[in-house]
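Entry 14: structure prediction run for CPBP family intramembrane metalloprotease. Input pasted below.
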Amino acid sequence: MISNAATLSTEEQVHRARKGLRLFLSILLVFSIIMNTAVILTKSIPLIVVYMFTPALSSILARLLLREGFKDVSFNLGSAKIWKGIGLAVLIPIIICFITYSIAWFSGLAIFQLPVGGSLEPIFHMLGLQHLPTPLNFILIVVVTGILGSLINLIPVMGEEVGWRGYMLTRLVNAKVPRPVLVSGLIWATWHVPIVIAGLYVEGPSMILTVAGLYLCIVPFGYIIAYLRLATGSVWPAVIIHSAWNAVVQGPFARATTGNHTEIWVGESGMITALIILIAAILVSRRKLIK
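Run finished. Output tokens:
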């Protein structure tokens, strides 16, 4: 009797997860088509921020319609494991970008120039930090941007992560979908493609190469985020790493880099970026950094 009940419970869990997953993806598809149409017709950057909330909104509607509740999103911050995950979430994007861009700068594929005129410049002038040696100045800019950017970007990024890692990933796992993290990454990458084609995100000299590079960067990065989410049991590390990544790669590193067709090598669809993210994903998943 106990064995049968356990089997039934597992079957019910799989069934509910698959039902939730189908509903979530269906709602997301409708919302995404509507928002992509609006973004492409208007070329509006602010609408892209609204678009970022479609995964969270889709997951909320799925939860309400299926009466699933919100407890498993897990906004818990009450354990050392979660705070370790948050620390890694800030450090990993900074390390990936430093390695990626250093390769491009020292190889001559891109040119380094100390970024000026950024949002942090008044703070640096007030503290007298603009007189520091260029390398130290840039490192400080990146670290501060990574920390502050994680907080500034928190709300729009949460619009994605509450849906992606707060709902879709766990449903893929519970639904026994083969290679759930890979599937999650592929869906996440595909969701970005329309705004890339519209020329409003990660532009490059070749649309085909840009889209291919986007998949090569996002899918392995999805493994890193999934590891942080599943290892800590909290959605916060996923939100923070996504926020920190957007802050540093779109901020100081992008502004510090010039040259012809650098998008091929660095940035969010660059080939060097993709290689370093892949190596990072393998190291993170195999070394079990959070115990």
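Notes: The radius of gyration is 20 Å. Will compare against the previous run tomorrow.
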